[in-house]
Specification:
- By secondary structure, the protein is an alpha+beta fold.
- It has a domain of 84 residues: Lipopolysaccharide (LPS) transport protein A like domain (lipopolysaccharide transport protein A fold, Sandwich).
- The protein is built from three helices and eight strands, in the order H-H-E-E-E-E-E-E-E-E-H.
- Strands 1, 2, 3, 4, 5, 6, 7 and 8 form an eight-stranded antiparallel β-sheet that branches.
């Protein structure tokens, strides 16, 4: 370099070399601590995760229970009560069989199932655990009965009031009904 003192050029070179060594040391330290990979991990898309199966209890209470571990069948007879909190399911029946290989529960004899406020009454109910579905069958010449809680957005909430007709309740607006006679 022409026109610059030799000492100044060397000091500039030394300072640059010192900065390079510091940067190299910081990079090595970051790599050793795993800090360098953090930015890479953040930039990469996260693969979708599969739900991890978790064993949930299904409690069966009855007068008598038999199990066949070879066939994978548990049979409960007499005042059977089933409680499966993972699916918010409670049931009663005269008999129940759980087929563990198929993950299927077959209840028979005056079956009553209550799940999340909805109810089902039948002679036989087959519940498929993995699918969360059931098949209900009645006695001959009878019917299956189900009661479902349905969200009704047309019926207003009526609160007690001292200013309305008929005992302090405000008059509710007319709600269409399938059973009410219609005016001509």
């Amino acid at each position: 370099m022409v026109g610059q003192p030799v000492g100044r050029t060397r000091s500039s070179q030394r300072a640059a070399a010192k900065r390079a060594r510091r940067a190299m040391g910081a990079s090595l330290m970051a790599a050793a601590m795993g800090i360098g990979q953090v930015s890479q991990a953040i930039a990469q898309p996260v693969p979708p995760t599969q739900p991890v199966p978790v064993r949930q209890p299904m409690t069966v209470i009855s007068d008598v229970q038999e199990a066949n571990s070879i066939a994978g069948i548990v049979t409960a007879r007499g005042n059977v009560q089933v409680d499966y909190p993972a699916r918010m399911l409670k049931a009663t029946a005269a008999q129940a069989q759980y087929f563990s290989n198929e993950r299927r529960l077959v209840m028979s004899g005056d079956v009553f199932v209550l799940q999340d406020g909805n109810s089902l009454r039948a002679e036989t109910v087959t519940y498929y655990v993995d699918e969360g579905r059931s098949i209900a069958l009645p006695l001959p010449n009878r019917q299956v009965e189900s009661v479902y809680l349905v969200l009704d957005t047309t019926t207003p909430t009526v609160l007690p009031s001292s200013s309305g007709p008929a005992g302090g309740l405000p008059a509710a607006p007319a709600v269409p009904s399938l059973f009410a006679p219609t005016a001509p």
